[in-house]
Amino acid sequence: xxxxxxxxxxxxxxxxxxxxxxxxxxxxxxxxxxxxxxxxxxxxxxxxxxxxxxxxxxxxxxxxxxxxxxxxxxxxxxxxxxxxxxxxxxxxxxxxxxxxxxxxxxxxxxxxxxxxxxxxxxxxxxxxxxxxxxxxxxxxxxxxxxxxxxxxxxxxxxxxxxxxxxxxxxxxxxxxxxxxxxxxxxxxxxxxxxxxxxxxxxxxxxxxxxxxxxxxxxxxxxxxxxxxxxxxxxxxxxxxxxxxxxxxxxxxxxxxxxxxxxxxxxxxxxxxxxxxxxxxxxxxxxxxxxxxxxxxxxxxxxxxxxxxxxxxxxxxxxxxxxxxxxxxxxx
Length: 331
Hints:
The chain is built from 12 helices and 8 strands. Strand 2, helix 3 and strand 3 form a beta-alpha-beta unit. The protein is elongated and about 90 Å long. The two termini are 16 Å apart.
């Protein structure tokens, strides 16, 4: 019933003349937002069909919100969703998808590392029968540590995930509205959009590109935030960590049994000094304690996510919307 209602609402919200919606999450991007808006306007002018832009302000503390209000008032193709606080990148993308009205929806970051002009090329490939066209990063301009972390994460996720998540593909993509509706219908709160996009299936293809450096400003995706996103991706789309904990416990149990047999033989045939082997026993205790804490930590991560899902809180809270009519404001 919920899915049917969502479909009815989407059909009422989607005017036939909007072909492509751009979803752009923003957080403290005052240095780059003017150039971003200019390039989005040029892209929409060159498209040859009607477009709209959904700017999602993820609780910015600089002048980003002011610039968003200004552009929405001067260009009706721009609409905005303003969060009450910072809820995170994936929540901002989710909000944009919920409010997009186009027959197809493109996602890009607001730092211009993902060129908005490429979304028109992605959109053309939809006419070849694809439902999703996503970008695959051939090269990146981040520092060595970040590049290694990205490389390691995607390959670990590919090996452990229960579904096929393409390597080196982020949220930068174009999807038709059918795929967007299925993603919007998912009730989960720990959202990992690129994984959800892969999970829904349909016909998908990747397009390789070289990711550009930031035009201005500094990345808001710090290493701790990247680690949290990676954890969400791994734990949301894989039960392998739980199996690893089980395997580690079994391995330690077998090793302890073998070691016990060795100690018994050593006691019967070797030195029986009370202090002999003290360091080895202490080392074993610390090792076993570390394995136990690791397993408890993995279980705790899953339990924490269950706890957050059970509470049923919304993914984000909207402070206000700009450029929406009364009917869409009620959604």
